[in-house]
Amino acid sequence: MIMRSTFLALLLVTAAPAAAQPAQPAQHAQHAQETDEAAVMATVERLFGALASKDRAALLGAVVAEGRATSAGVDAAGRPQVSSTDWVTFADALARRTDQLRERLIDPHVHVEGDIAMIWSRYEFEIDGAFSHCGIDHFDLVRIEGRWRVLNLTWTRQTTGCPGR
Amino acid sequence: MIIASRFRAPIVLSALALAGCGEASAPEPGRAPAGPSAEERAAVMQPVNAFLDGVARRDPAALRATIHPGGVAAGVGCGPTGQYNQLFAQPLATYVETVGSMHADQREQLFDPEVRIEGNLATVWNRYEYSSGGRVRAAGYSSYQLVRVEGRWKILNYSWSIRPQDCAAQ
Fold first, then answer.
1. Among residues A104, A105, A103, A112, which one has the least CA distance to residue A20?
2. What are the residues facing A127 on neighbouring strands?
3. Contact: A84, B87; criterion CB under 8 Å
């Protein structure tokens, strides 16, 4: 099921900043970059908060409706399997879930350039308080009329070989 | 105007994969070997370069071969009267069918593409310049999300930004 492999819940971003920070020529530019990164990460946190609370409207408020949620996983035989859905379908499925979901990003790598941003990050996922799986999340974000939203989220998923597990 | 067309309507850019794009597959001297190998990077860049080349040649069939159906093409671009910060979004499969209406002298060059790969997921993040009529008319950043199916990388989602002054200059 898509939903089984999909759902990201509460985001706990690590305190460490993204590994690669571009050199900034001026202090104010540095501050602007930090502010933008914080705004981008806050948007992801908003999305994950909506997932944790299974709040359909809040989730749709954190995304661009035209974007996609996609699992780039493998099937039972280990063959690549891509399952993609729009955000409305994703939110509808979320609202039907009954289990407790929680996700945390680990060492997110963030790029923000003007009104476009991307995040590439390891994640860990818990269902009903127990470790479920890990993988990589890739977010595309855009800022329209001053508001960052998630355009696309694509992820991998693995239940074995997770670092530290 | 060309730029307006690119960013607000399904009449999109013509683009050309320049030789410089080949740098995407070059290893980074002096860097820790934590990232993908040169071969892995080249495999991911191949459909991206083929996509840009297919747009430049206005060849929908070539573009279809580079994409995975179901994704989107989306940009933060210009509105119909040159205003900045308008969202453009349509299915990528629709977007690639529009290339026949493009201008022949347009091209897009990628700079310093950052390639990341995990399993069957990859990303290419880069600065770009878009030229037409012999001068740069737009620049920004673009992001490609790719998935690997049956051993081949395909573009799933494609998104981009543009500079505010590029809208004002229209």
1. A112
2. A101, A130
3. no
Asked whether B106 and B14 are in contact (CB, 8 A), the reply is yes
Please report residues of B whose CB lies closer than 8 A to that of A118: 123, 125, 143
What are φ and ψ of residue B89, in 5° steps?
A: -155, 135
Cα dihedral B150, A76, A138, B117, rounded to 10, equals -50
Q: CB under 8 Å, gap of 24 or more: what pairs does A32-38 form? A: A33/A112, A36/A112, A36/A117, A37/A110, A37/A112
* Contact criterion met (CB < 8 Å) for A142 and B121: no
pLDDT tens digits, residue range A94-114?
A: 999 999 998 999 999 999 999
Give the pTM.
0.81
Measured CA to CA in angstroms, residue A34 lies from A41, A112, B48 at distances of 10, 9, 30
A63 DSSP 8-state letter: B
Are the Cβ atoms of A113 and B141 closer than 8 angstroms? yes
The alpha carbon torsion through B73, A142, A88, A109 (nearest 10 deg) reads 100
Residue A60 burial class via C-beta count within 10 angstroms: exposed 0-12, middle 13-18, buried 19 and up? middle
- Residue corresponding to tokens 């993609």: A84
| Chain A with chain B: Cβ pairs closer than 8 A | 124
**CB-based contact A147:A121 (threshold 8 Å):** no
Closest CA to B85 of B161, B158, B137, B9: B161
Report pLDDT digits (tens) over B10-52: 222 323 323 233 333 333 444 444 689 999 999 999 999 999 9
